From TrEMBL:
Pfam families: NLPC_P60
SUPFAM superfamilies the UniProt entry points to: Cysteine proteinases
Protein name per the record: Cell wall-associated NlpC family hydrolase
Ranges in a coiled coil: none
Length: 379
């Protein structure tokens, strides 16, 4: 057993050494030029599911807000609920969080809807996942008799039980404008059949404003590790938050890639990282365009388990990357790679000459590898 651990440690150190050499060769400029200047908005700028920063119904929304609005509409359409449900849900999130996935609020309130774990809204892992939180809200909404014909604000208040019941109705107008932007099809969609033998993981992605921008767009590089299995002898990080995020990500290996999905049956690249850190009780914004600015800056030389790693992907650029993975330690990264491949684990060294950003989310920051360890790993 000790010999096996030693072999794994040397192999991991070798991966790190290879990675650092590749990083050095591509120059420091890649990591200092993290932006290309102000983002223009839309699918070619700070796009994402919702089409990026834009004015809708006379209100200016940023990329995170439009992405969350599109996610809410998507869940409503996927569940074959009326358009009215999306208006109520989005008006609620405008009041509660301004459509931002926050990790704070009154007492133990969290997330888009400011749901409270202590009041039976679920664990933080569920509340901090925008798609899961929306499902919880919709579950309670549809239990209300006559919810679809209630006066503005009444259904939202009946679900939320807010101390400020009059705040919801005024936000239905901007919410309706957002829904109009993303809603596709009839106001009362017909339920879609579920695939025989299992859940239907294909989302109603026609509601998204931009096409899929999260795939790598290149064939998977050959590797000596199984991309869908945890390597033998892998040790999760000691820090509780990092361990929770890494363990969640590893548990998703082999699941499908579906654009816009945030679990539990499928993921896209940023949906996986949002869900992984939600499992640790840490909010991470949806979408690569927002995630590349979350947390604190790090580098490949100081990368820590749980850090987010960005590459341009199929439609991105060095300043505006469109693919993200989560570093799990021991020279490995987990990511929702593409529709053909799904969620996989691969050597971080495969990404070395493409990395544009590394963001540290929580737990101890990484430290440069000791020279002695690198020397020992050198053939």
């Amino acid at each position: 057993m000790d010999q096996q651990k030693g072999t794994i440690a040397v192999a991991a150190a070798a991966v790190v050494m290879t990675f650092l050499v590749a990083v050095t060769s591509m120059g420091i400029a890649m990591f200092t030029a993290v932006t290309d200047g102000p983002l223009a908005g839309g699918c070619g700028g700070d796009g994402g599911l919702g089409g990026g920063s834009q004015s809708i119904g006379g209100t200016d929304w940023n990329a995170e807000q439009t992405e969350n609005a599109a996610t809410i509409v998507n869940r409503v359409v996927q569940r074959s609920l009326p358009r009215r449900a999306a208006v109520i849900a989005i008006s609620t999130t405008i009041v509660e969080s301004q459509l931002v996935n926050v990790g704070h609020g009154d007492r133990d309130s969290l997330g888009l809807y400011q749901q409270r774990p202590s009041q039976g809204w679920g664990a933080p892992a569920q509340i901090l996942n925008p798609a899961a939180a929306t499902d919880t809200f919709l579950d309670r909404l549809v239990e209300l008799p006559g919810w679809a014909t209630m006066p503005p604000g009444q259904a939202a208040q009946a679900v939320q039980r807010s101390a400020f019941p009059d705040r919801y109705a005024p936000q239905e107008e901007p919410a309706a404008a957002l829904v109009e932007r993303f809603w596709v099809g009839p106001d009362n969609p017909v339920p879609a059949p579920t695939a025989p033998g299992g859940p239907n993981v294909q989302l109603a992605s026609s509601v998204f404003a931009c096409p899929d921008q999260g795939g790598v767009g290149a064939p998977l590089a050959p590797s000596n590790i199984d991309p869908t299995a945890l390597p033998p002898g892998f040790t999760p990080p000691a820090d509780p938050a990092q361990r929770a995020a890494v363990t969640y990500a590893l548990a998703q290996l082999g699941k499908p890639y579906v654009y816009g999905a945030k679990g539990p049956d499928a993921f896209d690249c940023s949906g996986l990282t949002t869900a992984a850190w939600a499992a640790a009780g840490v909010p991470v914004p949806a979408g690569t365009v927002s995630q590349k600015n979350t947390g604190t800056p790090a580098s490949p030389a100081t990368i820590a388990p749980g850090d987010l790693v960005f590459i341009p992907g199929s439609l991105g650029s060095p300043g505006n990357p469109r693919h993200v993975g989560i570093y799990v330690g021991q020279g490995l990264v987990v990511n929702a790679y593409s529709e053909q491949t799904g969620v996989i684990i691969q050597p971080l060294s495969d990404w070395a000459d493409q990395i544009t950003h590394v963001r540290h989310i929580a737990g101890p920051a990484g430290q440069p590898a000791p020279d002695a360890a690198l020397a020992a790993a050198t053939p």
